[in-house]
Amino acid sequence: MPPINLAIVGVGKIVRDQHLPSIARGSDFRLVATASRHGTVEGVDAYKTIDEMLEAADVAAVSLCMPPQYRYEAARKALSARKHVFLEKPPGATLSEVADLDAMARDKGVSLFASWHSRYAPAVESARSFLASTTVRSVEIIWKEDVRHWHPNQEWIWQAGGLGVFDPGINALSIMTHILPRPAFITASTLEFPENRDAPIAAELQLEDAEGRPIRAVFDWRQTGRQTWDILAETDAGQMVLSEGGSKLSVGGELRSVEPEQEYFSLYSRFAALIAAGRSDVDIAPLRHVADAFLLGKRKLVEPFHD
Ligand code: NAP
Fold first, then answer.
1. 0.85 cut: is pTM over it?
2. Ligand 1 pocket: which residues have CB below 6 Å?
3. Which of 54, 80, 114 is the last residue of a domain?
4. For residues 35 and 28, is the Cβ–Cβ distance under 8 A?
């Protein structure tokens, strides 16, 4: 199969860190255009807007990598032009937007892929298989990182729709919804908002699975020193620790061997497979949990945050 001509919209941090090397490593896609107000990629045709790009470039697929508040409008334009669309996470700013895009992709006969990169972390599939083989009694999710290190001066992330600490927290929820054998539901949440920001800096969620087993999730952006991205499960076969954002797995204190790291390479392979099969993959479960956390959330004001 010849490579699929691809355009990237919103050339920023994640495009440079992950998309460009992963596209270059694979043979499924050829990057032929970008649409970005400031960002460009050497040797690739650059347009300022998606409208100009769709008008002039010969592309079959588009990756939308701008902040979530601006993804829907771009996605509608790309789908209207009958392009296959890869959505960075989170797939949109609201659930209704994503539902509309899903319907539109079906209507236009193209593939829509709501990507969740953390689900492709090295130890996630092993964790899922392990949990399917035993009984889960309780789960604790601890996602604590230093926002100043990981998101310096990213204004959009603090604005309404930018998700705040749920920007990394939704990665934990994307893993949780993939590895747990039963669906889970939020029963209570507390959100801590800096008094000068419109998005939370910390959140604590209580959930239960369909059999009433407890799940607790703590997300915090004020962690300096050691960073924590862990999911711990107490099971009938011992404690499972899925650590470092899904990179390492131990059961009963013993480290299990895992796949090599290739999250974004795997995402592009999946996107190509969806296009070849004429299918879409739009799982909104992680975003639905975030919406539920906001619906049930008790709001606490905390000290102002300055970068
Ligand atoms: P970013 O660098 O702040 O933004 C990406 C690009 O989007 C910017 O360089 C900018 O390019 C464009 N953009 C910014 N504001 C815009 C606006 N108002 N309208 C249209 N375009 C705008 O962010 P990022 O870290 O790459 O994250 C982008 C998405 O990827 C987010 O949804 C994030 O959750 C996800 N993600 C990020 C990471 C990470 O480690 N950073 C990891 C996984 C997923 P121009 O100024 O050139 O238009």
1. yes
2. 10-14, 36-39, 65-68, 70, 88-89, 117, 154, 156, 167
3. 114
4. no
